[in-house]
Amino acid sequence: MADSAEEIELCQNIGPHELVEVKSKAVVKFSAVQVPVSFNRLQCNTNLNLPPSNWLTTSNNSGLHQALYQSPGFASFSIAHMFPDCVGEVDVVTDAENIKRLLKMPYTSKSAVSMIVHKVGNTLLLDEFDIQKYLLRKADDDWKWLRTFILEHILAYGEKDHSFCLKDKSREALQTKNLLSKFLYYSLKQSGAEAPEPETQRARPALPITGPVLPEPKVEENVPDPKSSHVFNRNVLWTFEDIRMLIGTDMPIFGGPNRPCISLRLRDMAKPINVLTGIDYWLDNLMCNVPEVVMCYHIDGIVQKYEIIKTEDLPYLENSQFSPQVVRNVAQNILAFLKANATKAGHTYWLFKGRNDDVVKLYDLTTLCQKDTEANRCDEKQESPFTVPVAMLLYTVARNMKNTATQITPKIAGNIKALLDNCIKLLPKEKYPQIVTSSHYILSDLHLPAGIDPKAPKFDTSDFDSDTQSVYEEDEDEDLGSDDDFNLNDVHNELSESAEHSGKVAIKQICDTLKELNLEAHMKNGKRAPRAPSPLHVGVEDRCRISLEHISAGIACLKFFNSSEEKFIKESEVRAKDEEKQRILYEEQNPNMAKPFKPIPLPYESLTKQTLNGMTEAQTKLDDILVVKNQTAALSEKEKKSKKSKAKRNKGKELKECQTTKAEENQGQVQQPITEDKRIATKFNTQHFGSWNVHLKLLLLEKACLTYATYAEFYYVEQKYGSCLKAIYMACRCQQVVLKYLSGIVSQKSCLLGRAGDCFFQMTKNWDEIDNYLEQFNEETEIAQNINNELVKDLDGEDLIELITPVANIEHLMVSSCKSYENALACVDEVNADDEDAKSELLRRLGNVRNELGLKYMYWAQEEYAKEMAKKSDKSSNESDSIETSLTGNSQTDEKEIKTAKDKESSKPEEPVYMKLAMKSYDCLIRGISAFNEVQDNVNLAFLYCNMGRFMRFRAHLYLPEENIDFVHKQKMFYNEAFLNYEKAKEVLGSRKSSPELWDLVNWELSTATFTLAKQLQDFSTADEATRAEVEKQVLDLLQKSLKLCDYKQIGSRQVLYTYRAGLIHKRIASFHYSQLRNSCTDISTVPKATLQLCKHQYELAANLLDGLSEASDYLVVQLERISLQEFLADLSPHISQKIKHLQAALSLCLRSKAVFEYALNTNNSTDNNTSNDELYKHMLLFESRLQNTLKTLIKMLLNGKDPKKLVELYKKMYMATLTSKRPAMGEQEHMPVEELAQHFATLMERLNELEQTHIPNAAEKL
């Protein structure tokens, strides 16, 4: 039939109207046909009753056959699965015919409406539900609960003319449909010039896949009725006013040179266009974004003419006028009605209106099914067929949202959580363990994302989603009730103006229902009821806890995989046999014969496509063969090494399959395109069903490892070291299983064991809380037990790593800490020996614990030695005193720990316990020095050298019976080792600038060591006459060296200590020179003046320093020695005058000693040392005797000689004052408090000074 070049005339039956803008936008998401199809205008008087030559052919890629003769079924599920990224962003997903049926509902009461409604997030899924097709014409056992409900509640009205048939199947309707079919096929332009558009160009783009490969729902599980799968010619994202809809449409679209995009309609000139037809044409054009509609008029199938009508003019055709605003209001209010009632996610609702009904009803079929199940009126086979598809859609949408979102904000996370929670509630884990387990994994990853740093977890806390829209309806602040009521009333009033519209009662019912629902929705207990799920705002602890809950629930589903697999295989076999029998029976009853007027289509495929498919299949087979070979080779090698049982080899094979799949997954994410990831997922789902068990288990255990590691870091910061250690051990076991399956993953065992060492060490630092720590470690939770039970299945006795259980013992905890650090270092060497940063950090921590443990052993040995020496009464107290003064600090260790450490020593029973502890201390310090030396940590290395010097000083004072050498010589040997370590510490530091505090500590320790050794050599040396001079020289050198280290002029925390020690050193040097004078001089002429002056100078320096510190006891000893020196010089002097001079100098020293007794009064109250009090008491009595002896000797000498100054009377008065002063008798003096005696001598010194002051003027007057 030839084309006509005449222009189609415009329709003249359009009434006057104002231009009303309708906001409509259509975006084609997917097209399965060529758009537009070339239009062939028919000539006048063409007989449409005759079929065209191309009638019902499918090779023209026009989609006419599908548009006219295929039923869409439950198409919303297929559309939603094709575009999961749109679910939640659009308001409605459905077939275009359902939208038109709803919007035309208020204009007629004769039409029946039956739709299934599902709510997924903020999106409604609408599907036509043919009661006759799915219930009344099926077996009695299918959906018995719904059939019973319909018979009892719907058909019980008893009206004979009550029809529930949704489609008009009358003879006239069928003839009209056939006529339209022939017309459309006639309108196809028969030309081979235009090649069809390749299918690959129209294919829907694949969505990106990120993260691990997870199972996908099976095709038959995605829709309620798999047999009615329907792919629309076009999927369109249609925005109508403020309503967004994802729809499927099969409307043919034609085009030509002058009219590039038109829709064709066939109309009988004898029948005018009514309102319903006008709305139908108008909505079809809006949905497909078609600007014009071409009307072909006929009389009894004979073409008469063509008219063209613009889409915006369709509402104003004569006798079929309608208001676009009314249609918009109807759409808005019906959508509001459905959203206000269908509020439960995952529930199935039935929107029903019978013919001639005035009310539209919405039933909750899920609740109805649950009630019948509880009443045992329906079994497993009669459950709702929509439950599983809805759950699968929830899973698909949530997984797509998780994988495609560039940033998971709290709002998006809350939406994903709500979707998956509903999915888990709907799906029985016994039947669908893959999807349920995968949902639990996604939820766990949602709370604790992969790649997060356990030490510093950072979560997105922003509240604003810039690029994404919530899949749930947002709460609005304004009150929408008044607007909805106004719109509905406008619709009702406008429809009431026309008497021919009888559907006002239905829209009135919707209006009344919305009024009630708005009041309930806006006011619930005085507050607005929330609609959207709350954003995911939880802390680290709650995130870890919830993540572990989902991991445990996912692991609990793993046991259902095998049973589900067997059941699925059996059902597949039975189904395949039944289908084969039905196919054979059908072929026998219906032989394939040619039918008249029906062309036999010849299948055609492109050679290029076939070649590509063949290459792909061959490549796939080759890959499978290579995978099997690799698996076999790996397994055989594994059998040679381990020689495990057959069951374990089978398990290893399964693990290798998962490992190969994991490697393919990682490569696919980086190198292969997105379709490769989907192929892998499909391969998992179909060919290796059992491997999903291992794959998902590994994902869950890997997530558990990360969660426990994050938990451990959280507990460590909170100082819950028992819980931290328990979490670390769980993470280690989880990662051990993962590494057993997938050896390519980088092990984090070193980090975990390093933190375990920190926990052990911190337990010793907070010893008061040790009972709480042990209670935390021994606490068992149900979640941990479930995970641990799964771990035990894969960990044999040989595979279990050694994990130390903490006990209430300081030594055990510190040794365990060192052991953990050493294991962590071994792991670093195995995994990545070049990771110097990790090794250095672990070595520093190990060296620190070694240092602390060495000091503990040293303090315990000191206490044990003190106890041992206290038991031996035959030993001198000097040795005990030297040990007590060898170290500046004393350990505060529980006796129970010492006893425990003592009981553990069993190697040499004859060796003293303190010696064993000392050797352990030495070993720990040496290892600590080695660790810090390896990482070149100079500050800590200097600290260790300082502690080693302290140990050598302690070891020098340990007395061992088997040591035959001189004890003082042994002390000197160990002290030289101490000096060497102190010098190493200073050499490592370099100068005081590097670490002033540590430099001062080393100086103090070195000064203490030299001073102590000098005291030991000076006081307890047993050298003979030949070596005495050498020893004396050594003593003097040590004292001078110690004095040089005492920087008492520098202001600091040790200034007082340095000053006191300098005073003692000056006293020791002066005493040394005094001792030399006494041993070598027999006459005053033989006394070396230099030595004497040096001795006096040292005594004077010591007195000044001790006087400045108000040290009563040592100051008094210095004064006594100075008095003794003057008495010694008096004894050596041959002349009376010289003797009197020296004795008067001694008396002057006594009279200037008043400050000593005042210091004793001020400081003695805070002194608790009884030994010091006794010595001070004795020194006071000695001072009194020396004072009296000096006065008595002076009186004798002055009476026998010349006394020009009349001093004898003064001395007599003084001597009389010392004898007549009020103090207790000698027998009571031994028990007199030191304070009273000091007060007595202070008063006496004041009295003597007064006598001296009064005598001097009197003597001058007499002269």
From TrEMBL:
Polar residues bias locations: 883-892
Alphabetical list of InterPro entries matching this protein: EDRF1_N, EDRF1_TPR
Residue ranges, compositional bias (Acidic residues): 462-484
Region Disordered: start-end pairs: 195-226, 458-484, 637-672, 870-910
One Pfam family cited in the UniProt record for this chain: TPR_EDRF1
Extent of Basic and acidic residues compositional bias: 652-665, 893-910
GO biological processes: positive regulation of DNA-templated transcription
Domain EDRF1 N-terminal per the UniProt entry, residue ranges: 21-202, 232-485
Entry superkingdom: Eukaryota
Domain (EDRF1 TPR repeats region): residue spans on this chain: 911-1252
Biased composition (Basic residues): 641-651
PANTHER family for the chain: ERYTHROID DIFFERENTIATION-RELATED FACTOR 1 (PTHR15000:SF1)
Protein name per UniProt: Erythroid differentiation-related factor 1
Species whose genome carries this gene: Ceratitis capitata (Mediterranean fruit fly)
Lineage: Eukaryota, Metazoa, Ecdysozoa, Arthropoda, Hexapoda
